Amino acid sequence: MKVVIVGGVAGGASTAARARRLSESAEIIMFERGPDVSFANCGLPYYIGGEIQEREKLLVTKPSLLNKRYRIDVRTRTEIVAIDRRAKQVRARNLGDGVEYLESYDFLVLAPGAAPWKPPIEGVDLPGVFTLRNLEDVDRIKDFVDRGVEHAVIVGAGFIGVELAENFLRRKLRTTIVELQDQVIPVVDREMTTPIAEALRSRGATLLLRESVEAMRKSADGLTLNLKSGRTLDAGLVVLGVGVRPENQLAVAAGLEIGPRGGIRVDDGMQTSDPSIYAVGDAVETRDFLTGGRTQVPLAGPANRQGRIAADNIFGRESRYRGTQSTAIVGFFDHTLATTGLTEKVLVRDRTPFFKVYVHANHHAGYYPGAKPLSIKLLADPLTGKVLGAQAVGSEGVANRINVLAAAIQAEMTIRDLAEVELAYAPQFGSAKDPVNMAGFVASNAADGLCPQVHVDQWEGELGKRAALIDVRTPQEFAAGAIPGAVNVPIDELRERLDEIPRDRPVVAYCQVGMRGYMAVLILRDAGLDAYNLGGGYKTYRLHHPASDEHA
Amino acid sequence: MKVVIVGGVAGGASTAARARRLSESAEIIMFERGPDVSFANCGLPYYIGGEIQEREKLLVTKPSLLNKRYRIDVRTRTEIVAIDRRAKQVRARNLGDGVEYLESYDFLVLAPGAAPWKPPIEGVDLPGVFTLRNLEDVDRIKDFVDRGVEHAVIVGAGFIGVELAENFLRRKLRTTIVELQDQVIPVVDREMTTPIAEALRSRGATLLLRESVEAMRKSADGLTLNLKSGRTLDAGLVVLGVGVRPENQLAVAAGLEIGPRGGIRVDDGMQTSDPSIYAVGDAVETRDFLTGGRTQVPLAGPANRQGRIAADNIFGRESRYRGTQSTAIVGFFDHTLATTGLTEKVLVRDRTPFFKVYVHANHHAGYYPGAKPLSIKLLADPLTGKVLGAQAVGSEGVANRINVLAAAIQAEMTIRDLAEVELAYAPQFGSAKDPVNMAGFVASNAADGLCPQVHVDQWEGELGKRAALIDVRTPQEFAAGAIPGAVNVPIDELRERLDEIPRDRPVVAYCQVGMRGYMAVLILRDAGLDAYNLGGGYKTYRLHHPASDEHA
C-alpha cells in the first residue's frame, strides 16, 4: 500500500501519523511545498509580538522526526504540479533544482490548505503588503517590524486581524484596522463583539468599520492607502487578513468535484469524487453539523480530525466526520470571545426559527476575589429546545463555558439539559449556578412562557413606540446610565407603586442583567399588566449601544 | 397556597425564590435555625485564610432582601421542632425567647442540610475542637487563629480538609492532616490525588495517612491528640472534617421514609413519602445518575437545582431531578483536582465492567508560553463506549475539561464522541487536539484493539513477573528516572534493534505519557511480538509511585 499526501501541516501530518499507526508496512510519502511541516499556524501572530520568543517553538514536528519515528518519507520544498488519476500518479517538482518526477499512489490525500485571499486592489503586491500563512510570511513581517515601522494597517478584523492587532500593539506600533463590516470578528453576532471592539480602542488601536482599502501606493516612507471613504492612511506595513481561499488548483485540474465556494467536495469519510483520492483540512468543503448544509471552515481542530478519519478509511476502518460546528475563540489581551454552532445572523439569513437569551454572570462565585464578568448569548430551537448556538465574551472562563456548550450542541442537548448540567463548583472555579445553568434557566423560563421577554432589537422596532419602559434598578444604578425614555421604579418598591405603571399599553421592564426584571414582570403580570422583560437587561442594551457610541 | 420551608441556605432559599416566581400570591414562610440565610458555605475556609476579607461577602442574600423582593417571610433563629402531618402544621420555636407556636402549611419543604459528623472520641467537645458548617463556626475558628495558635490539626483529608489546610498554611500555621484512608480526597481514585498530596507536603503540611485520632485531651497550651499509631500530637486547634450526616431528626420523628444512610427519601420530583412534604439538598437521598442507585452527595449545585424542582412540582409544573453525578472540584494553591461520574474504586466495588485510559497533556498549546501539565483519567463502558467517569488534576484548565466531561456523561456520550468534540482552540486557550479529544483518541484506540494496553496495577500483578519492560524514551529521560527493571530502547532506534527484544514473553513498552509507547507497540506487534503499551506511561507510573514515596 502506497499513500501519497500533498501538504504537511495540520491535516496532512495527522493523516501521515495515523496512517503509519494503522500500517507499519505502508509506504507513506508526504509532499510539502514549503520548507516546514506541521508548524503552529495559530501561533504565528504571537511570534511577531514576542509572546512566543523562539521561532523553533513554532515547529511542532520536524521532517526528521516524522521520518525516524513514523518512517514517513517527507519531501519539503516539493510541489505536486499535476495528478494523473488514470495512472494513479502525481507529478512532483523539486523547488530547489526544478527537477520533476512522477510518483505513483494507491491512495492520494490532498491537504493543501487554504491561501490568504489577496483582494484585487492596486498595490496588493507592493513590498510592505503582507498576508500571513506560514513561517516565511511571519519572518518577513517580523523583519519589517524589527526594522522600526511605526504604523501598521490590518485589513480585516477577523480572528487573525484581531490577533495581529494585539501583537502589533505589544510591539508599540500604531495600529489601524480597516474592516468592511460594521463590526469586528464578523462571523460572530455584532453585539457580542462590542467588548472586543472597545478593548481594541482602549488599547489604542484605530478601528475603521464599514471601510475598505481601494488602492495602495508607495510613498516616501512606506505606503499610502486610499480608503473607500476618501480618507487616506500612511502605513509602514499592511497585512491583509480578509479570508482564505481553498487551494483547489490541483483538484480542479484533475477534474475532482468542487463546491461552489471552491472547496474540494468530500463525503463524510473524506473521500473525494475519486475513490482513490481523499482530501482534508482547509481545502475541503464539509458538512455543517447543525444545518446539514455545505460549509468551509478553516480550523485546525477539524483538520486534524479529518486527517485521522481519512487514514482510517484508507486502511479499511470505517470512520465518519460528523461535520463542523464552527467552534472558535479569539483573545485580545485580557478579553476573550468564543463561539460555537450557529449565530443569530446565520439563523436569520436561513430563516431558521430560533429564540435567544442573554446571561451576564461572574466567571466564578462573586464572593470570591477575582470574579470577572462573562456574557453568554444562547440560541435555541423554539420547538425542541435544542441548543443551536452560543457565544461568550469576557476575560476569564470563556473557553470553559463555550466548550461545555460545544459538547452540548454535539450531543443535541436542550436548554433544559443545560439547566441541569452538573458542573464543577468551588468558589475559585465556578458557581453553584454556573453561567451555563443560568442560560438554561433563563431559556427554559422563556420557552415555558413563565417570563415573556423582548429583546433590544424588538424594543427598537414597533414595540418601543408603543410600550412603557420601566427601569427596576436602584436610583443609583439608574442615575449612572439608563435606556433613554425609561422611568425608574426600583423592584423593591414596585408592588407598592403599581399605580404608577401605565395599564393602557405594553410595559417593558429591565434591570442590570435580567434577574430583577424577571421578578418585576411576574409582579406586573400578576397585577394584570401586559409586561415583558428586556432580555439580558441593561448590560445587553450596552452591548448593542456601547457607551463610546463609536461602535454604532 | 401556603408553603413552609425548613432551612434557609442553598436548597431552602432556592425553593423560596422559585416558589415566589411561580406564584405572586402564595404565602411563603422560610424558617432558619441560624442567624443567616443563603450564606456561601463553600467560601468559609477562604474567609479563615483571608482570601475573602469581608465577612459580609459570605452573606449572599439577606433576609431583608428576600422579604422585600420576594415577599418571603424569613424567620431566622427559629427552629422547627415537630411536624404534625395529619394536621399539616409544624411547631416552631423562637430560639431567642423560647416561645413555641404552630404554623400550618399546604406544602412543607425540608431543607435542613447535613451536619458535620462528630466521631465518638474522647475530647470531641473540648474548646479548640471545631467542625465547620456555618458562619458561627467560622467566626470561632478564625478567632482562634487570630489569637495566635501555632499548630492546626485537620482530621479528614476530604475537600474541606484540603481547603482548610490551604488557608491555615496561608495564615502561617503549622498544619497537620490526619486521614484514615491511604490518600487525600478519598472520593477520588488514589493515584489522581498524588499531585495534591505532594503539593500539601511541599507547602509544609504534614500528612498522616492511614492514621486516626483516638482521644483528645486538654494540655498546657492547647490540646494533645493520641493517634491510633501510638503517636501523639500537640495542637492549638483541631477541625474535624470527617463527613456529614443528613439532618433527618424532624423527618424521622414525622415518620417519613428514610434511606439506609439517613437521607430523607424522595422521588425524582423531590417529594417525600408524604405527598405534602418535599425535601431538597444535603439532607436527601437522591438517585445516582449513572448507577441508578441511591446516593447522598452534599453539593451546592444539586441542592440549588433540587429547590427549583421542588417548587416547580408544588406549583403544578412537572419537573424531575435527573440524579446526581458527583461532579466536584478542589483547589490547593495552584493545584486543582476535579471529578465527575463514577470513580474506578466505585466501579470495582460494584463489579461494573469498565476500562480506563490516562492522558497527560498541556492545558493549552505547548508552543505558547505558560502551558501547564494536566492529567485526565477516563473511565468508560467496554461494551458501549459510554463515558462512566473522569478525573483531572493539574494547575490550569482542569475545570474546563471536567465540565466538558460532565456534560458528556449527562448526554451519554461515548469515547468516540469525545474524540470528535469540537472545542475552542487558540494557542492560549487549548490545543487543536484538546486533552479531551486525546482521551477520546486513546480510549477509542484501546477499545478498537488498535493498541493493547496494560496498566500500572496490572504490571504490578502477575504480568510484571512474566513480561519484559522496554522504556522507549531517550537515554536522557531514562537516566532521569525509570521503572525498575526496564531496558532502554529509544523509539527512534526500535526498528533497528528489534532483535534485542525478547520474543519468548509479553513485552510492555512505555514512554513518558503513552504516545511513543503506542507507536512502539505497533512496531513490536508488526514484528510478531506480544506487546502492550503501559497506559499513560511513566507519568501515570509516577502518580502511582510518587518520587517522594512517602505517599505509598
TrEMBL record, chains A, B:
PROSITE patterns: RHODANESE_3. Belongs to the class-III pyridine nucleotide-disulfide oxidoreductase family. Pfam families: Pyr_redox_2 (PF07992), Pyr_redox_dim (PF02852), Rhodanese (PF00581). InterPro entries: FAD-bd_OxRdtase, FAD/NAD-bd_sf, FAD/NAD-binding_dom, FAD/NAD-linked_Rdtase_dimer_sf, Pyr_nucl-diS_OxRdtase_dimer, Rhodanese-like_dom, Rhodanese-like_dom_sf. It comes from Paludisphaera mucosa. The keyword Oxidoreductase applies. Its cofactor is FAD. It comes from the Bacteria. Keywords: FAD, Flavoprotein, Oxidoreductase, Redox-active center. This is FAD-dependent oxidoreductase. Residues 463-550 form the Rhodanese domain.
